[in-house]
Design goal:
13% of the residues lie in helices and 38% in strands. By secondary structure, it is mainly beta. The strands form 21 sheets. The protein has a 15-stranded antiparallel β-sheet that branches. Strands 46, 48, 49, 51, 56, 57, 58 and 60 form an eight-stranded antiparallel β-sheet that branches. Strands 66, 69, 70, 72, 77, 78, 79 and 81 form an eight-stranded antiparallel β-sheet that branches. The longest helix is centred in the C-terminal third of the chain and has 19 residues.
């Protein structure tokens, strides 16, 4: 705006604070900028003003006080006015942008602040502290820009100015002491306060939160923004706010501009700032919102309101996003142009806002989170009136309007037209370029002015990219699309990396992820989606990251839901524009047709046609609200490395664009057979055909009757067919085997064809095996009827190698097996391209006859057409086909509309039209617990109303319908009528009586099975049901209560109906199996393959679980229920229980049909209890199953489950099940010396509280060998009354050995609490002051307890600190108690639990007969110490936990060893496992415990080993000499190339003889690197580096080392130091050693060692065996001079160590440098 031009302003502010429905509107009455009368930075630590106005968060911190004087005569009434202010200042950042901060602003009493002017020191600090504590939060001030003018958020001072009429006091702080901590420092200067006072006018409004799922208002006076489902209504929620315009509001759309601000003044953040949301804000028609919600329902659902509101939203205008980041977020207000709204909703009386962060609303600028109870909002606006407007019409050369630009100003203004119009524009899906003779400027006159700017057509069917950006850091000019890691199958960071298809070569990642995003607009009025064959997105590749090396990649584009975004090149939030279904798989992406290599420069094309068509079809669904222009937003990703793409701004000549291609543009050949006797091509190519044999053209048809056809005898024809569509309308008169509709190729060894009988598309390439694909879609259309007309289309997409075949518009075949196009044959000059004849006609004519058929037409295109194009070439208006199918399906299901249904529905799932198109029909139930998507009824205990929504579709064409009906309830009598058998096990003996009255009695193998009113199942104690129990059963439900007491047994069956397994077969059975993990597997075998479905959930070991299996034969649905909840639905089992055999004689409970086979060990009898076993011949619903589950079943209040004595851990473990609580009980463990339990030798007891569920009770008791244990549980110690423990027979407690005995000098023993006992003098070490003294043992004396610590930051590797538990004092180096000292604990050979304790200086800790402690260098008996655990720590408890006992013995030992060592690689694993175990580990089930323990198997403490390699760590240092260093030219990977640097020969001498031993030629970027290499390798023994002959150093941002057998490559962006070369080079030497032996790491010796060690060496080592071996080599080299560290490595990775020694010995003639560690 030019300064000399007069403007008319009418500044009017609407601000709405919703209180009891009253909304104030403001008109501006005061605007002033105030200078501070006092401003100072106060240091509360030093009690002084330190001069500069600083906000500092750390020690010696300061905060700022500002004092402003209000104008003389200032008055303010908060009932009638509102005060809004902003601090403005100049910011300096002493520590740069990294030290920027955000200050919190409090409004403080100005008068009191003024009165401190005469104070100082401590007294002033006291006053200021009182003032700030009484202050109130009003906003924040971010200081993130260096040397710049900044401003605070908008501060609402209305409440403050009610009581402060002279001064405004403000306090700015980021101090932790003030509870507003925000790290950083800023200096403020040139401070001002802008203050605006607004008057209020009363108006009304509406605010409510809408619950979309329930179609009601959750709140009628407050707004909520929540990104998830929930709340009182358990619904997705968003909000509406409506403001009424003032009655005197006027607006002239031609001359007025309305600039507005919207603010949210208050909010509640229920989940704190961590889940503060960002809401998208839309302008919606306020009048329509008020009309739709004139009566807001809060309890009764009103879907019509939801529908009305949805239509209003879809017609809304997006204005921006709002971060609701505090309880007073008003400072984050949105500024927007209200003019568009007023023009769209002409005559509107109110302004509506829609606030949402729901994913379903699809606004990319929103973010997840929750803010509630927003009740105060502000809307301010400023009306700028002009007296002149210029309408600039952008027209084509015929005067047709393309676009219009409106510019408002005042008479006399000169408008620079060149700044308002672009050189190129997109309009009507074309690009237009501005003409040469347009005026450059225009002088305005009063009123409406108009001018035409002429454009000429530049590029037809082409659209410019409107916006483009990327996530991640800012990079070069243009945008970067790169990947730093991710799933090779595709994820939100990485496009799928499929070798040979999307990527090739040995490329690597880049430093950070960059996800690209772009958008373009499509004019829906100027596009025919029925004829679009391709929409090519063309992106100009400017550069490719060097990490691609010599490989290639394809660029992927993903379809999004087209969110409204704010674009930036760098730092976009990639989560705001996800793939539309969060599907990043290979088939969800659009891939560049071109592969991209390091030297790619120029445009690459991606076919994004489906994204464009989907956007247009989605727009069509909006009906009256559909838009003329739709925006398509695409997401860009790469599988590896990175690419650099030009934008409009970076280089307009290489700008990205979209090219729309129509089907006819790719026409290659067009035969319509309209000229009798000739085959003329109507395409521009004129590929006329030659009639062969007796084939003829007459009456517009090609007729072939078994002799001849047409040859397309043109050598250039197939060259055009890299991708293609071949299309024909054909009537087969005879269906003969091996005849061809077409066969295009060079010979019988090279051709692509479509076969008639056994219809198939095929390709034979260079005499390889013929690839065939036949019908594989469901449903299909079939080419199988003589004298019936068919429309056939075959497409091939070279980019995806996808072949599709369509019959009558129906997709019937899809394959990716055909890998070659028709232009790929070796002999491109052979034109054996036949219609109706095979390429075998002259070799095997009898087996490959000519076709019998009539062709109406035959066309070939050079593009793979989408289905929609093919359908509309088949039938001019394919929507008529859809209408026919839709009406037929709707008519068929209309019988159910409004009905009362008790039988399964008969639903159509396909429909074939009269023209032969087959449409698919899919159904979706509103309640699958009542009616499945297949129409199967699962009747409930009450009537249920259900809606089934159907979709009739084929390709892009679809229509939806719905039917609503009532499913009648199922009665208890109906359920019982379908009962086959019911066993409640409440009898005795071997007969299991059926309580269903069907007399299907079972038989137990012994009387003990039926006891305690349950079935007690264990080895050879099972139940047999009657023969042929399966007869005539299709649908069924089987349920039972089960208590699996030992899940480690494989193959346990709850039931198995069928016949005993026979090796000769056939075998049939139906079973329910409980797996070792606790999951359930349902399996059915009808004589072939067993079909199995496994649950997601699990049953609990040693606890009662209710399980049910239901099956519906009509839709092959298997349902698994656990404890009444539906766990799994699967349609994978098509076998039925009725077909397991014509008769069944082995219908078992608790046993598998495989029990007597060779696989009996993995199909063991169930071990546990079963009750209420029920079998129904109906598919019961979830509610019916729950009803049956809730029937009483026989279970005692307290059940004995199991008991074991763990020898070595000295622990009795008892499992008790309980139905109720029992507090204050007592468990008694008794040891007896005789098996008759008469001679009592020991009693131990403990108090216990029994809780409902599984109770694990441990009692510490040491049992002597040959003795026996019993236990008793009393109700209380006082009563001495034993509880009734069902199932406890007082049998001998089982004795098992502890899997791990804590007797080794490692962290597992030393981290417990143990005693130190002098082996020579039989006394226990104790702490007394600073002395170690000796005592006799006394229970409870904690001074006798010690513990060991390893701290990798301070303890020497291999050593421990020793600390007294009671005093927390350490055994120091002088054998007294004081500061910590490192001690090495070692076992004494031949003596169990006896150790020596040695300091790092070699002194041993000893005890003499007089009870003194001393040090000696000569170990003897007085240096021997007995160490035994007294109190277990969490890890020691884990070693005897049920979960640990579930691991195999090998896994137990490996877990123990790898976490046991005083080495960081070990201690980190141990601490990580303890963290994963958490505080509730012991309360978890055995299976859950096992999963936690197994999780550590794949954990790696570090990404790479990278331990220091030097003389100190290797114990090696040899001499060397460097030959003459000369300039040289070499390559990155070899000695030839164009890199300039230096070369020299380095000779390493034998460490002992000093003679030359090893020669290496080095090429490097500098002399310094050569010196660094020589120094680095002089510290590594010859045995490891012996094969390296060449080292090449070069500049590369890959920052990697690489190595082969005899060469090492240093590829970094910096010169690597000697220590760096030694450290990383040690890793590369592993590759050298391995490669020299034919990649030893990939051979079974090493891979078996890796598998047997179980644990990974490092994260990088986990990549593959090669990196694992190299990482392990680096680890070993770094420990060569650390024997205790090497000992730890051997214990952690014993098999790898042995394999490395084997390899090294093979190079050393049977010996090696590692022999000394063996």
């Amino acid at each position: 705006m030019k300064a000399h031009i007069a403007r008319k302003y009418l500044s009017v502010i609407l601000a709405f604070i919703i209180v009891f429905g009253i909304i104030p509107v403001y008109s501006q009455s005061l605007s002033v900028v105030l200078e501070p009368v006092n401003a100072f930075g106060w240091n509360f630590t030093r009690n002084q003003d330190q001069g500069e106005i600083k906000v500092v968060s750390w020690d010696d911190n300061r905060s700022v006080f500002l004092l402003f004087k209000l104008p003389d005569g200032f008055t303010f009434d908060s009932q009638k006015q509102e005060a809004l202010a902003q601090i403005m200042a100049y910011s300096t950042l002493p520590n740069g942008a990294g030290g920027a901060t955000t200050a919190t602003i409090l409004a403080v009493n100005g008068e009191d602040l003024y009165n401190t002017n005469n104070q100082s020191g401590f007294m002033k600090s006291q006053s200021l502290n009182r003032i700030k504590r009484a202050g109130s939060y009003v906003g924040t001030m971010a200081t993130g820009t260096q040397n710049a003018n900044i401003s605070s958020s908008v501060l609402n001072l209305s409440t403050y100015l009610d009581t402060n009429k002279t001064y405004i006091g403000l306090f700015l702080t980021n101090r932790q002491e003030d509870n507003y901590y925000k790290y950083g420092i800023t200096i403020l200067s040139d401070i001002k306060l802008k203050l605006e006072i607004k008057d209020k006018i009363q108006n009304t409004s509406r605010t409510f939160t809408w619950a979309w799922d329930k179609h009601v208002a959750e709140k009628t006076d407050k707004a909520d923004v929540v990104s998830w489902q929930g709340g009182e209504k358990q619904s997705y929620r968003s909000s509406f706010v409506v403001f009424d315009l003032p009655e005197d509001f006027t607006y002239d759309p031609d001359f007025d501009t309305i600039n507005a601000n919207f603010a949210i003044n208050n909010a509640t953040l229920p989940n704190g700032a961590g889940q503060a949301p960002t809401a998208c804000v839309m302008l919606v028609c306020g009048d329509l919102v008020k009309e739709a919600t004139s009566t807001l329902p809060t309890d009764v659902a009103n879907p019509s309101i939801s529908e009305a509101l949805l239509n209003i939203i879809q017609d809304g205008i997006y204005i921006g996003s709002y971060k609701i980041d505090s309880e007073k977020p008003s400072g984050n207000l949105i500024s927007f142009d209200l003019t568009q709204y007023l023009a769209k909703y002409e005559g509107v009386q109110s302004i509506g806002f829609y606030l949402t962060n729901l994913e379903r609303d699809n606004y990319g600028a929103s973010a997840a989170g929750i803010a509630t109870n927003m009740s105060s909002f502000s809307l301010t606006y400023e009306k700028i009136s002009s007296d002149s407007v210029l309408k600039i019409n952008l027209v084509d050369e015929d005067g047709n309007l393309l676009k219009r630009i409106t510019h408002k100003g005042n008479a006399g203004d000169t408008v620079d037209l060149t700044s308002l119009v672009s050189e190129k524009i997109s309009a009507k899906n074309n690009i237009y370029k501005i003409g040469d003779n347009n005026p450059a400027s225009f002088e305005l006159s009063s009123g409406i002015n108009e001018i035409d700017i002429t454009y000429s057509l530049f590029e037809q069917n082409t659209v410019l990219i409107s916006n483009i950006g990327h996530s991640g850091p800012l990079g070069r000019t243009g945008i970067i699309v790169g990947v730093a890691g991710g799933d090779a199958n595709g994820d939100e960071n990485r496009a799928p990396a499929v070798s040979g298809q999307t990527v090739s070569g040995n490329a690597t990642f880049v430093a950070s992820n960059r996800i690209g995003v772009l958008s373009f607009d499509i004019d829906t009025n100027n596009i025919d989606i029925n004829q679009i064959s391709e929409v090519e997105l063309n992106l100009y590749i400017n550069d490719v990251n060097e990490n691609l090396y010599t490989g290639w990649l394809r660029l992927a584009a993903y379809e999004t839901n087209n969110p409204v975004l704010t674009y930036s090149v760098g730092d976009m939030d990639a989560s705001l524009y996800p793939q539309k279904d969060n599907d990043y798989s290979i088939n969800a992406a659009f891939w560049s047709k071109n592969t991209i290599s390091r030297n790619t420069r120029g445009y690459v094309a991606i076919n994004v046609r489906d994204a464009v068509v989907n956007a247009i079809l989605k727009n069509e669904q909006l009906g009256a609200n559909k838009k003329d222009v739709v925006t398509v937003v695409l997401r860009l990703q790469v599988p590896i490395a990175a690419v650099y793409i030009h934008t409009n701004e970076s280089d307009p000549s290489c700008a990205p664009y979209v090219k729309i291609k129509y089907a006819q543009e790719s026409l290659v050949l067009d035969y319509d057979f309209e000229e009798d006797g000739q085959v003329l091509d109507k395409s521009p190519n004129r590929y006329n055909g030659t009639l062969l044999g007796s084939a003829k053209v007459e009456g517009g048809k090609l007729i072939v009757e078994g002799n001849g056809g047409v040859q397309i005898n043109h050598t250039g024809f197939r060259d055009k067919l890299s991708s293609y569509t071949i299309m024909t309308t054909i009537t087969p008169t005879k269906l003969l085997e091996n005849s061809r509709i077409y066969d295009f190729g060079a010979a019988s060894t090279d051709s692509g064809f479509l076969r008639v009988k056994e219809f198939a598309v095929g390709l034979k390439y260079r005499n390889q095996t013929t690839i065939l694909a036949t019908y594989n879609q469901d449903p299909c259309a079939y080419f199988d009827t003589e004298n019936e007309k068919y429309h056939i289309a075959v497409t091939y997409d070279q980019t995806t190698t996808t072949t599709k075949v369509y019959i009558n518009g129906t997709l019937s075949i899809v394959t990716n097996d055909i890998k070659y196009s028709l232009n790929a044959f070796s002999n491109r000059f052979s034109a054996r391209n036949f219609i109706g004849r095979t390429n075998w006609y002259d070799q095997l004519p009898q087996e490959n006859p000519d076709i019998w058929a009539i062709y109406d037409d035959f066309k070939v295109y050079s593009t793979a057409f989408p289905q929609r194009v093919i359908q509309n070439m088949y039938i001019d208006d394919f929507s008529q086909e859809l209408d026919e199918a839709y009406e037929a399906v709707a008519d068929e299901v209309s019988q159910y509309e409004g009905g009362y249904i008790t039988q399964n529905l008969s639903l159509p799932f396909s429909y074939k039209t009269q023209n032969g198109t087959v449409f698919k029909v899919e159904w979706k139930s509103s309640n699958e617990n009542v009616v499945t998507n297949s129409g199967v009824l699962l009747r409930q205990s009450l009537d249920e109303t259900v809606t089934l929504r159907g979709r009739v579709y084929q390709g892009d064409y679809s229509k939806e319908l719905s039917i609503t009906f009532t499913v009648g309830r199922i009665t208890d009598d109906e359920i019982l009528d379908n009962l086959v058998l019911r066993y409640d096990f409440e009898d005795s003996g071997t007969i299991i009586y059926d309580k269903s009255n069907n007399e299907n009695h079972g038989e137990a193998t012994n009387e003990l099975v039926q006891k305690y009113n349950v079935a007690n199942i264990k080895d050879n104690a099972i139940i047999k049901m009657p023969n042929d129990i399966h007869k005539d059963i299709t649908d069924y439900t089987i349920m039972a209560w089960i208590r699996p007491d030992d899940l480690t047994r494989e193959g346990q069956r709850i039931y198995d109906i069928g016949n005993i397994y026979r090796p000769q077969g056939p075998n049939g059975y139906a079973f329910l199996r409980v797996n070792p993990t606790g999951t359930l597997s349902v399996g059915v075998n009808n004589g072939g393959q067993t079909q199995i479905v496994t649950s997601e959930g699990r049953v609990s070991e040693k606890q009662w679980n209710h399980v049910a299996v239901a099956y519906s034969a009509s839709d092959c649905a298997t349902y698994i229920y656990i404890n009444g909840g539906l766990d799994t639905i699967s349609y994978d089992i098509t076998n039925t229980i009725a077909n397991v055999g014509s008769t069944t004689t082995s219908n078992l409970i608790g046993r598998s049909q495989w029990f007597s086979s060779s696989l009996a060990s993995t199909n063991r009898d169930f071990f546990g209890k079963i009750d209420n076993f029920e079998f129904y011949n109906v598919t019961l619903s979830a509610s019916s199953i729950v009803s049956r589950m809730n029937e009483p079943f026989s279970i005692s209040d307290f059940e004995y489950i199991d008991s074991t004595y763990i020898d070595g851990a000295n622990l009795l473990r008892i499992y008790i099940g309980a139905q109720e609580s029992l507090n204050g009980a007592k468990v008694i463990a008794a040891e007896y010396s005789d098996e008759s339990y008469k001679i009592l030798t020991q009693i131990k007891s403990r108090d216990i509280n029994i809780r409902p569920g599984l109770n694990l009770i441990d009692v510490d008791i040491t049992k002597q060998d040959g003795h026996f244990i019993k236990f008793y549980i009393w109700e209380s110690y006082q009563s001495l009354v034993p509880i009734e423990l069902s199932g406890y027979e007082k049998e001998t407690v089982r004795v098992i050995s502890s899997p791990i005995e804590l007797s080794r000098a490692d962290s597992h023993l030393l981290n417990t609490q143990f005693y130190l006992k002098s082996y020579a003098h039989d006394k226990y070490a104790s702490a007394s002051g600073a002395n170690i003294v000796f005592k006799d043992w006394q229970d409870g004396d904690n001074t006798l307890l010690w513990t060991g610590e390893f701290n990798y930051q301070s303890t020497i590797e291999g050593y421990f600190y020793l600390k007294n538990v009671a005093t927390n004092s350490y055994i120091s180096s002088n054998a007294r108690l004081g500061s910590s000292n490192s001690w090495r604990i070692e076992n004494v050979n031949g003596l169990k639990n006896v150790f020596t304790i040695k300091a790092s200086n070699g002194n041993y800790l000893c005890a003499n007969a007089s009870g003194s402690v001393y040090l000696t260098t000569q170990p003897g008996e007085e240096s021997y110490w007995e160490i035994r655990m007294v109190k277990r720590d969490a890890f020691a408890n884990m070693l005897i936990s049920p979960g640990f006992l579930r691991l195999s013995p090998h896994e137990q030992q490996r877990l123990y060893d790898v976490t046991s060592q005083p080495l960081w690689l070990s201690s980190n694993r141990k601490s990580t496992l303890l963290g994963r175990m958490g505080s509730n580990y012991n309360s978890l089930s055995a299976v859950e415990q096992e999963e936690i323990l197994r999780s550590i198997f794949s954990y790696t403490p570090t990404s790479q080993i990278n331990r220091s390699v030097n003389k100190d760590t290797t114990g090696y240092k040899t001499t060397y000499s460097i030959g003459e260093i000369t300039e040289a030219t070499y390559g990155e990977w070899g000695t030839s190339g164009n890199l300039n640097g230096y070369t020299a020969v380095v000779v390493f001498n034998n460490e002992k003889t000093g003679e030359p031993e090893h020669t290496v030629r080095v090429y490097a970027r500098s002399r310094n690197v050569i010196n660094n290499f020589a120094e680095a390798f002089s510290c590594i023994p010859y045995e490891f580096r012996r094969f390296i002959k060449t080292v090449i150093d070069s500049y590369n941002t890959a920052n990697q080392f690489n190595a082969g057998a005899d060469a090492m490559y240093i590829r970094t962006s910096y010169e690597v130091s000697a220590s760096g070369i030694a450290m990383t080079g040690a890793h590369e030497l592993g590759h050298s050693l391995s490669a020299t032996s034919g990649w030893w790491d990939s051979k079974s010796t090493y891979t078996s060692a890796m598998n047997n060690d179980i644990f990974k060496v490092s994260g990088y080592g986990a990549t593959n065996s090669a990196e694992d071996f190299a990482e392990f080599t680096q680890l070993v080299i770094s420990c060569l001079n650390r024997p205790y560290s090497m000992e730890a490595v051997k214990i952690m990775f014993p098999n790898r160590f042995e394999a490395l020694v084997t390899l090294m010995r093979s190079y050393g003639g049977g010996t090696c440098i590692l022999d000394k560690f063996m």
